[in-house]
């Protein structure tokens, strides 16, 4: 028998659960894109995008997904033959490096593997070795969605400064913006990329690039920037359509206006971070208990280096793939696939999954997901320690004081 009939729940790391309010805000007639409401609303959105990143710099909006923002950042940061230093902690860091290489940038990857964060000491050493100062920027992922590793961005800035190197610091926050604490100004970030469909709770289709004054000045002559991807006309738009190099993404903007109000003006950014941290804590508590009695566990050992928006885990013997199928077919919950953790097609590929807790997610949604997972472990006969759900409930009880 299947118990999946009812409202399905997508617990994958993007697209995330969206508020009905956001969807309703998009359900309307097309607006005039030359004057009136949308022009004023966009000015407010740009100001609020700076608030959500704690940035006093600039924002360019693209009609793209996260991969598009990678290319936007690369196109503006580099000229052909410039060098990028990429700190990789999972599939998304590797992916950003591949895009840079394909665009004609010389790329050096420092790979920290799939379970440990980027080490500031190795970053400093790599920059000190660059005596010719060829490295224009350091690219790093804040939370790598494949591994759920969260990197210490302030420590990366400190390492760049300790090396006395002029490299810009560019950070991929697609999985963390609106979920995990991020401080663009305070952490000395120069460029940051994000997208609409994760913590910002809007359908996929909007990409954002935040840029410091320093990065605007340092990248003015970059010869990879084609007219569409060039951030200058978008940032310093003298006419409304220049913000988007053409027609505005009208309905996405109406949705974004609503979600930014919910995050910044209603719940509050710090409360949003705390909610995501608490939900993550419930997932971690469940896995810690389950792992006492079976071949399963979290990917990242140290909680300080785990993202708040997504949790990567291993269930041996192909258990992750079987649990994902069970949860979807029997209980209406879709869990995330493992990404970049094992060669596709090998038996190990079925050992990894991800639980997302990003966006419009509350305690009952995450506890419900964990309850479904525990039911699935039992139904499938996958050995696991007892008490996972109790531990998750206790973590929520501790957090919700
Ligand atoms: C989701 C994600 C991307 C890619 O975003 P798309 O919108 O799927 O192109 C890039 N980086 C990180 C860290 C992500 O989580």
UniProtKB/TrEMBL annotation:
GO biological process: glycine biosynthetic process, by transamination of glyoxylate
Keyword Ribosomal protein found: no
Domain Aminotransferase class V: 57-288
Keyword DNA-binding: no
Keyword annotations of the record: Pyridoxal phosphate
GO molecular function, one term: L-serine-pyruvate transaminase activity
Matches recorded under InterPro entries: Aminotrans_V_dom, Aminotrans_V_PyrdxlP_BS, PyrdxlP-dep_Trfase, PyrdxlP-dep_Trfase_major, PyrdxlP-dep_Trfase_small, SP_NH2Trfase/AEP_transaminase
Positions of modified residues (N6-(pyridoxal phosphate)lysine): 198
Protein name stated in the entry: Septum site-determining protein
